[in-house]
Design brief:
single chain; 251 residues; mainly beta; Immunoglobulin-like; 2 domains; 1 helix; 10% helix; chaperone; Ig-like_fold
């Protein structure tokens, strides 16, 4: 009985180790950036894909539309190479090129770049997982005079009834994480992430006990370089408020 138990335990442990070693050997694809900024003055933008595994793979790349001005099926961009064979530990340059027409000229447009790993044919009784990386591509037409690094600071916040309203008057998208509104120490609203499009205005529900006083707003903005910038504001119904950068906490 005990020998049977130990044999079964050893089998499970060996299987777990084999799966762990296989996962480590397989690894996956890694991109050298978390977002792409595409100024209209550039003929193209690029990123590097790294096959961190030891086996050969195929890397497939394609774009999907992310705004109303771009068709989800046929965005006006070319991605090259759309399919690339990569050896273990190899790197591949992926280029993105705009066709020159089809996007708004007075505001930023956003798309999604997908890079998916296609493993080689699996051996019998071997599990393989296709890994896909997905990042945003921000296309910026010429003539936008506002500073994109101040886009989060330009957002306009106001309490209206049981909602907190936010408007984006600028031409850039604003990516935010960890949005939170508190009143008298109580959390009235929380959201993990949200992206506000140019000229967009939305209402975020605060709950039934919201009316009757200002709320403390906080969020983190993701800038062009992928860095996180914390913001805060005291928002009321009396006037429109813009958030300020929060001071870093001392160690």
């Amino acid at each position: 009985m005990f020998s049977t138990f130990f044999r079964c335990s050893a089998l499970w442990i060996c299987s777990g180790l084999a799966m762990g070693l296989a996962a480590q050997a397989h690894a996956g694809i890694v991109l050298n950036t978390t977002r792409l900024i595409y100024p209209a003055s550039n003929k193209e933008v690029s990123l590097i894909v790294h096959n961190t595994g030891t086996s050969d793979i195929l890397a497939q790349s394609w774009l999907e539309g992310g705004t109303d001005s771009v068709s989800p099926d046929t965005p006006p961009f070319a991605v090259t190479p759309p399919l690339a064979r990569m050896a273990g530990d190899a790197k591949q340059l992926i280029r993105v090129m705009y066709s020159g027409e089809g996007l708004a000229s007075d505001r930023e447009s956003v798309l999604w770049l997908n890079v998916q790993e296609i493993p080689q044919a699996a051996n019998e009784n071997e599990l393989q997982i296709a890994i896909r990386q997905r990042i945003k591509v921000f296309y910026r037409p010429q003539g936008l005079v506002e500073d994109p690094l101040k886009a989060a600071q330009a957002l306009q916040w106001r309490v209206s009834g049981g909602f907190i309203e936010v408007s984006n008057p600028g031409p850039y998208h604003v990516s935010m994480i960890k949005l939170e509104a508190r009143k008298n120490g109580h959390v009235m609203f929380q959201e993990d992430s949200r992206m506000l499009a140019p000229r967009q205005r939305i209402q975020l529900p605060l709950g039934p006990s919201a009316p009757g006083g200002p709320v403390e707003l906080s969020f983190i903005s993701i800038n062009d370089f992928g860095a996180q910038e914390p913001y805060h504001a005291r928002v009321s119904s009396e006037r429109v408020t813009q958030a300020s950068k929060a001071e870093p906490h001392p160690d």
